[in-house]
Amino acid sequence: MSRPPGRKQDSHKISRELFVLTYGALVAQLCKDYEKDEDVNSCLDKMGYGIGVRLIDDFLAHSDVKRCRSYSETADMIAQVAFKMYLGVTPSVSCSSAAGNEFSLILDKNPLVDFVEELPAERASLCYCNLLCGVIRGALEMVHLAAEVTFLQDRLKGDAVTEIGITFLRKAEDKKAKKK
């Protein structure tokens, strides 16, 4: 569908509250559909991965960021630019390995749980925000960085903060054609 000449394209942004409520309804429905928390966690991760694969294009187009030269720069970019851009929060970043390939994103406030007090006792192993892990993993994969992304701490489970662990597994080699 084309737009009339001279008319600006509208930005399709939804309010954060609507997004958080919709996300909560999605998780509630998944909990009804699946008996095991592991199945819900897996489904959220897969959904997040699909979002991350597509979201990276928007991120690169709108953030005006340069190519990261290290895992540390990449972790900082995720925290300081991506989280701020899409969730309105800036987690702190800490490196948790001597090799420099393991990082933690520590959120003092997680906007996805604004309307959630605590997890029900029968859902103790539910990772409510596992969608975020999938988003990060999918986006990183699209820029040729394989990573394992997991929740290490969760306020919904009584921890002091929400902590997402990112372990960069390897840097995919660029397939460059050699000149002969």
Automatic annotation (TrEMBL):
The keyword Transport applies. GO terms for cellular component: cis-Golgi network membrane; cytosol; endoplasmic reticulum; TRAPP complex. Keywords: Endoplasmic reticulum, ER-Golgi transport, Golgi apparatus, Lipoprotein, Palmitate, Transport. Pfam families: TRAPP (PF04051). It comes from the Eukaryota. Coiled coil: none annotated. It is found in: Endoplasmic reticulum; Golgi apparatus, cis-Golgi network. One of its GO terms (biological process) is intra-Golgi vesicle-mediated transport. InterPro entries: Bet3, NO_sig/Golgi_transp_ligand-bd, TRAPP_component. The keyword Chloroplast does not apply. Gene3D superfamilies: Trafficking protein particle complex subunit 3 (3.30.1380.20). Belongs to the TRAPP small subunits family. BET3 subfamily. Homodimer. Component of the multisubunit TRAPP (transport protein particle) complex, which includes at least TRAPPC2, TRAPPC2L, TRAPPC3, TRAPPC3L, TRAPPC4, TRAPPC5, TRAPPC8, TRAPPC9, TRAPPC10, TRAPPC11 and TRAPPC12. May play a role in vesicular transport from endoplasmic reticulum to Golgi. This is Trafficking protein particle complex subunit. It comes from Gallus gallus (Chicken).
